[in-house]
Amino acid sequence: MEEKKNLVGGISRKTLERLPMYHHYLERKYREGTETISAPAIALDLQLNEVQVRKDLAMVAKTAGKPKLGYVVKDLIRDMEEFLGFHNTNQAALVGVGSLGKALLSYKGFEQYGVEIVLAFDSDGRRVNTKTGGKPVFPMDKLENLCRRMNIHIGIITVPAEYAQEVCDRLVGGGVRAIWNFAPTHLTVPDHVLVQNENMAVSLAALSKYLYEVDKEGGQWTEEEDH
Amino acid sequence: MEEKKNLVGGISRKTLERLPMYHHYLERKYREGTETISAPAIALDLQLNEVQVRKDLAMVAKTAGKPKLGYVVKDLIRDMEEFLGFHNTNQAALVGVGSLGKALLSYKGFEQYGVEIVLAFDSDGRRVNTKTGGKPVFPMDKLENLCRRMNIHIGIITVPAEYAQEVCDRLVGGGVRAIWNFAPTHLTVPDHVLVQNENMAVSLAALSKYLYEVDKEGGQWTEEEDH
DNA sequence: TAGATTGTTAATCGATTAACAATC
DNA sequence: TAGATTGTTAATCGATTAACAATC
């Protein structure tokens, strides 16, 4: 029985989740003309603890910050992109060209993160051999073969939950090593494959629960109050 | 300065994130004819610790499990849905009818979680006064007014990052108390408003980083190995 | 009964925050 | 220099896991 890993490349999952937030924030600051920035300033804007910011930045920054000055924004952005591997483009295949699949195929913003969707698969004959967002849609039986031949490393699953595991297995069979799963279901994969769940159900549950609580308590509420 | 809350209704965020996973799993089991199920069985299938499963279920279950038997699947599903507030439908407004916005408007699966998108807003005159997924699209200047009049509590943001904060402020101004944010940016909101980030950038960063590491290390890799 | 499974208390683990000396 | 800010070590906090008595 294998351990579930919490670390990706020596960095905790929690830290990794914050990095894109810093990245986006720093890019905006840089566009606005900010040249250097301090950890307390970042912490204030992003509502984080300043020590946490310093520790997070220490994970990625090649050069240390300077007391009284802070960090050089431009260098920080560069180091962060290198750390996250945004410059090594990975090609991805998407399976399931429904409305969500179409939205993802049409979305231009992924390349910035080093991911490019190059082709899609669908079981519906009417969608096969068309193009969506400029990306060709192939029939399912070409999946393993095309993924392997094109050396695709990322699979994006946007099929209904009941087909997700099967699609996942086939992607892994085609040599895919990282899965971005939009189906609201748990996927079982071999150890060397990473599953990243984009779990909308989780968000909805949190929203729903929050509003439910607020209504129940009849207004604003804090966890300190015990009723 | 306010504390960021980690608890929603006396339950830890981590636990809350697992509940939809149990819910989906249990529904499948129930469809397959399973009447009772034990914590170890769930833990095995979902790759969790069995004590964790028991603790999580204890948070939601109205009736205790029975030694040697486990829990009644049907009751568990019912309790979980009640706990998460899936039966109290909340109406939502979506802002930004781009490809992602359209996909969400067309998606039928939200109602199951107690969320119903009833209308949308967009700044593009060509989209205004059309319907997408059967939901009317209104111009931006109607936002606050319509949200308030219709007693909308959930706002869904699918606009580009640079407009997200402004849209967020207006939704809050219209009485929205929970925001589902798809823009890759940090939103600042009053304390009584919950922001749920559906942060694709985070997922992409994790995928990208993982593949980057795997390639660097020349194959499979574990965090135990120090090179 | 025997043993699988429960719920709970205690131990462990990891992540966050506080404290502080170093430094530009 | 003085003080803002750094990086790091120690303390705290919360979540996970292990241990175990209760029970059907």
TrEMBL record, chains A, B:
Sequence intervals crossing the membrane: none
Native organism taxonomy: Bacteria, Bacillati, Bacillota, Clostridia, Lachnospirales
Residue range(s) of DNA binding per entry: 21-60
Transcription recorded as keyword: yes
Oligomer status and interactors: Homodimer.
Subcellular location as annotated: Cytoplasm
Domain of life of the organism encoding this protein: Bacteria
UniProt-recorded name of the protein: Redox-sensing transcriptional repressor Rex
Family annotation (NCBIfam families): PRK05472.2-3, PRK05472.2-4, PRK05472.2-5
Coiled-coil ranges from the UniProt annotation: none
Purpose: Modulates transcription in response to changes in cellular NADH/NAD(+) redox state.
Primary location: cytoplasm
Name of the coding gene: rex
Domain named CoA-binding: residues: 85-186
Record family assignment: Belongs to the transcriptional regulatory Rex family.
Keyword Membrane: no
